[in-house]
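can u do me a favor
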C-alpha cells in the first residue's frame, strides 16, 4: 500500500487536500472516491481520474486507488481536478512523490491529456497552475510532448426514445490510445466514467466481445468511452458504441456526416447484429433529425417493418441508410 496527496486552493482561499491511496484491487473497482462533497463530487473525481489515465502508455490493473477529499468545493468549482490527477499518479508511481505539492487546474479534455486552465491561485508562490502560462498538457510533467495526437476518437449517435418531448439523438464517443505493451484482460483496459457499475460492465463486455471479432484487436488499446447523456436504459446503444470503436481504431470508414445507429447483440464476438424494440418511434426520430451526409445503420430484422417511404425520405434528406445483420468484416 502507498499513498500520496496533493492540495488545491479553493475560491474562498481555503485549502482542499486530496489523498490517493493505492491498495490491492481484490476484485474491486479500479478507482474509488469518498470523503467530503458527497456522491456528486465523488462521481466527477472518478470520471476525471479515469479519463486522465488514457494517455499513460503503461497499463496495470492490479491495484485500486482510493481518493478522498477533506473538504467540499463549491458545486461549480473545478480547480481541484488537476490535484486529483496528480495525487492519483503519484500514488501509482507514474509521477515521483512530491511532498507538499499544490495544484490548481481543470480540463474538458482530460482524455487527451490536456489541461484547459485554472480559475484561482494566480500569483501564489509554489502553486502549480494548469492552462496557458502553466502546465498545458500532462506530458509536460514528465518532460514529454503532448500525447493528444496519439489519441484516436470517433462518435456515433443512437436514438434515445422514451415517448416524450425529451426524445433525442445521443452521442457515444470512443477514444483509444495505443498501449506500449500488451494488456491483460481486455475489459480492464476500458474506462466508462459517468455510467453506473452495471452500465460500465455492459459497455466493457460489448466492446471486448466485438474486438474479438476483429483479428488481433485485443490487448492493444487503452480506451475511454463517454456518453452525451449517461442516464438511459436498454441496449439499443450497442451498435453505435461498436461502430464508434471500429472507426476510432481504423476498422470502419467514416461517414461524411454522423453515423446514427441502433441495435444490440448477444454475440458480438461473431459480429452479429440483433434487433431492438421501438422500430416506429425510433425511425421517426432518426428521420426527423437526419442531415445531409449522415449514415444510418439499422438491424436487418427491421427491414420488413419499415414504412414504404422511409428509405426515400432518408435519401431526400441527403443521408444514406442500410439494414445490417453483421458488423464489417475483419
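np, heres the sequence
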Amino acid at each position: 500500500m502507498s499513498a500520496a496527496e496533493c492540495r488545491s486552493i479553493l475560491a474562498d482561499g481555503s485549502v482542499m487536500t486530496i489523498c490517493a491511496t493505492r491498495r490491492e484491487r481484490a476484485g474491486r473497482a479500479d478507482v474509488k472516491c469518498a470523503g467530503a462533497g458527497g456522491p456528486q463530487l465523488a462521481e466527477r473525481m472518478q470520471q476525471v481520474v479515469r479519463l486522465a489515465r488514457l494517455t499513460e502508455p503503461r497499463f496495470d490493473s492490479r491495484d485500486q486507488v482510493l481518493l478522498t477529499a477533506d473538504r467540499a468545493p463549491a458545486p461549480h468549482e473545478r480547480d481541484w481536478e488537476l490535484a486529483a490527477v496528480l495525487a492519483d499518479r503519484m500514488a501509482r508511481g507514474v509521477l515521483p512523490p512530491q511532498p507538499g505539492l499544490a495544484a490548481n487546474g481543470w480540463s474538458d479534455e482530460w482524455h487527451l491529456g490536456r489541461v484547459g486552465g485554472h480559475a484561482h491561485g494566480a500569483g501564489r508562490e509554489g502553486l502549480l497552475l494548469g492552462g496557458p502560462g502553466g502546465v498545458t498538457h500532462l506530458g509536460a510533467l514528465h518532460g514529454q510532448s503532448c500525447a493528444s495526437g496519439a489519441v484516436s476518437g470517433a462518435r456515433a449517435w443512437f436514438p434515445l426514445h422514451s415517448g416524450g418531448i425529451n426524445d433525442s439523438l445521443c452521442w457515444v464517443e470512443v477514444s483509444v490510445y495505443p498501449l506500449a505493451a500488451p494488456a491483460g484482460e481486455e475489459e480492464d483496459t476500458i474506462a466508462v466514467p459517468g455510467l453506473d457499475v452495471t452500465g460500465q460492465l455492459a459497455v466493457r463486455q460489448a466492446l471486448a466481445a466485438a474486438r474479438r471479432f476483429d483479428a488481433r484487436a485485443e490487448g492493444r488499446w487503452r480506451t475511454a468511452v463517454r456518453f452525451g447523456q449517461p442516464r438511459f436504459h436498454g441496449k439499443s446503444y450497442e451498435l453505435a458504441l461498436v461502430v464508434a470503436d471500429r472507426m476510432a481504431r481504423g476498422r470502419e470508414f467514416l461517414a461524411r456526416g454522423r453515423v446514427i445507429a441502433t441495435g444490440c447483440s448477444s454475440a458480438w464476438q461473431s459480429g452479429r447484429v440483433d434487433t431492438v424494440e421501438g422500430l416506429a418511434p425510433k425511425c421517426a426520430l432518426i428521420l426527423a433529425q437526419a442531415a445531409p451526409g449522415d449514415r444510418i445503420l439499422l438491424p436487418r430484422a427491421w427491414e420488413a417493418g419499415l414504412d414504404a417511404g422511409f428509405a426515400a425520405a432518408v435519401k431526400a434528406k441527403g443521408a444514406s441508410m442500410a439494414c445490417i445483420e453483421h458488423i464489417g468484416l475483419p
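The mean pLDDT is 92. hope that helps!!
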